[in-house]
Design a protein that fits this description.
Elements lengths: L2 E6 L1 H8 L5 E4 L3 H7 E3 L7 H7 L11 E3 L4 E6 L5 E12 L12 E9 L7
Parallel strand pairs: 1-5
Antiparallel strand pairs: 2-7, 3-4, 5-6, 6-7
């Protein structure tokens, strides 16, 4: 299983845990581009190429990058051992819901499905 690990602040962790928040956001920056995308040929995007991608308008990816295929997202409460596992329904770029912590500009949107059995984390 390909799992994306993300720490969260208390407010967002509790909203996801309660089933209220159905997507998580990450800034469109080189660090997250490296973690969430690959080149079309399956090669990892490195730091230098991530910075070059950032020079292009958001959403103009016909020429190469594609989203990584994660099966699940493991959220941790900050950097503690408290964790939960959710199905990953895909990653997109767009504007999210401000009440769920989305910025007022386009960002990576990680879509969540059902909560999975947390014992898979053991």
């Amino acid at each position: 299983m390909n799992i994306l690990y993300l720490p969260l602040k208390k407010e967002w962790y509790e909203m996801i845990e309660a089933g209220i928040k159905k997507e998580e956001y990450r800034e469109f920056k080189p660090y997250w581009l490296q973690r969430l995308m690959l080149w079309a040929d399956g090669e990892r995007i490195d730091k230098i190429s991530a910075e070059r991608v950032m020079e292009h308008p958001i959403g103009t990816f016909e020429w190469g990058p594609q989203f990584k295929d994660y099966d699940a997202v493991c959220f941790s409460y900050g950097y503690t051992k408290r964790q939960m596992l959710w199905e990953c329904k895909g990653i997109t770029i767009g504007k999210g819901r401000p009440e769920w912590g989305a910025p007022d500009h386009e960002t990576f949107i990680i879509k969540l499905g059902n909560r999975l059995n947390d014992e898979r984390l053991q």
